[in-house]
Design a protein that fits this description.
11-stranded mixed sheet
Length: 361
């Protein structure tokens, strides 16, 4: 509920740089210059996942002199929003001896009242000066664990949006369904027997969440480009990506930071992302035209439904980590059918002699 409210807030007021806080537990971790792990997801359409840590940038530096950021606080805005969603559907089947009719309706309303908000922003110019002679402790356990995973990069909290007073998030949900069944059959001596059954289900819920003052609801990070020797650079431009330097010649350098040199041709962010995904496109290219067309059509249908995308992401994450896909929590029948159809196509590719689409390569 809290994550839905913060996501709605970010979608209404930001163009893409702000990250919604997904859990109240993470709020206390998101102090200025705290470290956040940005995890790139496996599938093309998935947004990165952001994991706040218990460490700040100073905690993973060598030496005894911590960074002392200057934080500028300003009034941001006053926010109150109400979002509603209505879903309904019906299914009717007429067979030889059975008539079945199913109807369902789901109505929800989410009201968020964050009140007056403040923006806290780190002085980046001072951070650049203070970082000039600093080195990261590459033996720190957090550095080593993150470096081992090629999809993860570090970022530091540059900006955050904070509540100034107690506020609330209220969610009202109404769910209802009806099942009507008519069974007809012939008994002895051509006697016709009919059995009719009606059943209905109705469920209401009203949940109120009280949020304390000084709660972080959204934040912004600067990614870090980390060298093998522990030097780091701040990725100030939106199309400059962070990460760990690999063994061998440096393939790219930071743009916009004093002392950095760029001797390689510039590539757009889009081009770099396409190069990283070339292996996935190669797997798609070996599929038959019919399978490829069916898969892309199913993905297109899924992406039109936010809940279906979340379900598919969860199921695929389970499969990519070696777990059995669990569709038991899927409520909507059409979502389950679409996701199951995608899984069937992927499993078909898994049984072919070509590399599986489910392998994490």
């Amino acid at each position: 509920m809290f994550s839905t409210a913060t996501r709605n807030f970010v979608e209404e007021i930001d163009d893409g740089s702000l990250i919604p806080v997904s859990s109240l537990i993470d709020s206390d971790k998101l102090v200025p210059l705290s470290l956040v792990v940005k995890r790139k997801r496996f599938w093309i359409w998935q947004k990165p996942k952001y994991l706040p840590t218990d460490f700040t940038l100073s905690d993973v530096l060598t030496g005894d002199t911590p960074l002392t950021p200057v934080v500028v606080k300003t009034d941001f805005l006053k926010y109150q929003g109400t979002f509603g969603d209505n879903k309904s559907g019906n299914f009717e089947s007429n067979l030889v001896a059975v008539n079945l009719k199913v109807e369902g309706k789901d109505t929800s309303k989410l009201q968020s009242s964050f009140g007056s908000l403040k923006k806290e922003e780190v002085d980046v110019q001072k951070l650049l000066r203070d970082s000039k002679d600093k080195l990261l402790d590459m033996s720190h356990c957090l550095m080593q664990q993150t470096r081992e995973k090629t999809r993860e990069v570090f970022g530091v909290v540059k900006e955050r949006i904070v509540t100034t007073q107690p506020c609330s998030v209220i969610e009202e949900v109404q769910q209802g369904g009806q099942l009507e069944e008519l069974l007809s059959f012939c008994g002895p001596k051509s006697t016709q027997v009919s059995v009719k059954e009606n059943s209905s289900l109705h469920k209401d819920s009203n949940v109120s969440l009280e949020i304390p003052a000084h709660t972080v609801i959204a934040y912004c990070i600067i990614e870090l480009e980390i060298k093998l020797n522990g030097h780091y650079e701040l990725c100030l431009m939106s199309d400059t990506l962070g990460g760990f330097e690999v063994d061998g010649p440096v393939k790219k350098s930071l743009v916009g930071v004093p002392g950095a040199h760029d001797d390689t041709p510039k590539k757009s962010c889009f081009q770099r992302e396409l190069e990283k995904l070339s292996g996935h496109f190669q797997l798609l290219s070996v599929l038959s035209a019919v399978t490829r067309s069916s898969l892309l059509q199913l993905l297109k249908t899924t992406m039109e439904d936010r809940e279906a995308v979340s379900v598919l992401e969860s199921v695929l994450d389970q499969m990519c980590t070696g777990k059995t896909a669990d569709l038991g929590e899927v409520k909507e029948a059409n979502q389950m059918q679409t996701v199951q159809a995608i899984l069937d196509l992927l499993e078909h590719s898994d049984s072919s002699p070509t590399p599986s689409l489910l392998s994490d390569s």
